[in-house]
Design goal:
Length: about 450
């Protein structure tokens, strides 16, 4: 590695905003493309002649299962990546490589177990998650093929953070870009040209994820990698595996509770409104992905920088990371909130030309996103906690917002003041304001201020 490359991968060098931006911009660009990766299926499916709305709702019913599968990729991938960054900051390259290798082993083992479980329980789970007799067929067609690609999904999502943790943000971006480009090309080909409909959308996604997984492994096995996958690093070690799981549980809880919330929302909307309202939440979740993928890209750039500096003892730079993340997160959240609330109709039309569904979705979008600026505070706090290896704090506030606040609100609000299905949509802004504010306040009190006090003591002030 050249001297220039060493400086590029040493996150204690250079202005913090510049370092975080250098890491984050390629990842944000990748995540913007990943938005297409995640929602392009739904865009094409919603425009299938005659059956588009029913097919879109069916895929929406399958989303909680897909989110649950992705949760396990976060458990092993995002769980180990901060540990990898901290070890690199301490110059422990052997330990960092071992974390990476153990993560891959657990990802592969988990993917096989999840495939068997998903296939065995698919139909009853989909009915439980809000499928009706009109939508179960579409949900089964899509999910049956998607589950077959679980190993590709797990490797692509779970191992790409280790490319980013080594400072190769552009190579990490390519993991997403390759798969997204393939999906965009293959979707219309399989759905319309070959007449495969929903099954074609799922097949395009699986093949695209396979391409992403192949690229990811090629980078981590290649000569340019600082940390390489080997048989020795992939041999499971109890202490390493437990460390990955203890930190990865944060992302896992966040994702699995997202899955639970999606399932409960679908079921409640089906009870109080019917398939049209389930279709509306499918559109809402697709629009929400635009924001969450971008902020996740920023977080993926922030975490290795904040973790590396923490491991290197550069406390001032850790505080600078938090301040910069707060400024960017809040600004981004407010911009996205404004767009969604002011211009919902053209955004919704991307997913469906059905005016009946549009009439339900427009007020739903405005309600759902009206408190979204506070969501940025939640993401800043979560990324800070996770980047510093503080899994428990991240878990507590994830559970607070999603389990303690959102789920009870979804069950209670539809019964109050005649809100009906719109009570489900109102649960989100209420929880954003309360949960996001609490998480950010706790982060400032337990991370930012203690580090600042330590710095003052060390300087003798």
């Amino acid at each position: 590695m050249t001297e220039t490359e060493r400086k590029t991968n040493d996150f204690t060098q250079g202005a913090v905003p510049a370092v975080v931006t250098r890491m984050a911009l390629p990842l944000i660009a990748a995540q913007l493309v990943n938005v297409l990766y995640n929602v392009v299926d739904r865009v094409y499916i919603g425009h299938i002649p005659v059956e588009g709305s029913a097919a879109l709702t069916g895929v929406g019913v399958a989303l909680p299962v897909i989110t649950a599968l992705s949760a396990f990729a976060g458990l092993f991938g995002q769980g180990g990546a901060p540990l990898c960054s901290i070890a690199r900051g301490r110059k422990d390259l052997e330990g960092a490589a071992r974390v990476m290798g153990n993560s891959l082993t657990m990802l592969l083992a988990a993917s096989l177990a999840l495939m068997a479980l998903a296939w065995g329980l698919m139909r009853p789970v989909l009915y439980l998650f809000g499928a009706s007799d009109s939508t179960i067929g579409y949900a089964m067609e899509y999910l049956g093929i998607y589950v077959a690609g679980t190993p590709f999904v797990m490797v692509a999502l779970g191992m790409n953070p280790y490319i980013n943790a080594q400072g190769f943000a552009r190579l990490g971006m390519m993991t997403v870009l390759l798969g997204a480009a393939a999906n965009i090309v293959l979707d219309p080909l399989f759905i319309f040209t070959f007449g495969m409909g929903v099954r074609g959308a799922a097949l395009a996604t699986v093949l695209s994820q396979a391409l992403s997984a192949g690229w990811c492994l090629a980078v981590l096995l290649g000569k340019k990698a600082i940390l390489r996958l080997t048989r020795d690093t992939m041999r499971l070690r109890r202490s390493v595996a437990l460390g990955i799981l203890s930190l990865g549980i944060t992302n896992f809880v966040m994702s699995i509770t997202n899955s639970l919330i999606q399932a409960v929302a679908n079921r409640q909307l089906g009870i109080y409104g019917g398939d049209l309202y389930v279709g509306a939440i499918t559109v809402i979740n697709s629009l929400r992905t635009v924001y969450t993928e971008v902020i996740h890209g920023f977080g993926a750039g922030l975490q290795p920088v904040i973790g590396y500096n923490y491991g290197a003892g550069a406390k001032k730079r850790v505080l600078e990371c938090i301040r910069f993340a707060t400024m960017v997160g809040v600004t981004l959240g407010l911009v996205v909130w404004g767009i969604f609330v002011l211009f919902p109709r053209p955004l919704i039309r991307c997913f469906t030309p059905d005016e009946t569904l549009m009439a339900v979705a427009v007020p739903a979008v405005r309600i759902y996103f009206c408190g979204f600026g506070f969501m940025s505070l939640q993401f800043v706090a979560q990324n800070t906690f996770q980047g510093l290896g503080r899994a428990r704090s991240a878990i507590v506030f994830s559970i607070l917002r999603k389990v303690v606040l959102v789920l009870p609100l979804m069950l209670i609000l539809p019964r109050l003041w005649g809100l009906g299905p719109y009570g489900v949509y109102w649960s989100e802004p209420v929880s954003d304001i309360l949960g996001g504010g609490a998480a950010f306040t706790a982060m400032m009190l337990t991370v930012y201020r203690p580090i600042r006090r330590e710095m003052r003591k060390e300087s003798g002030a």
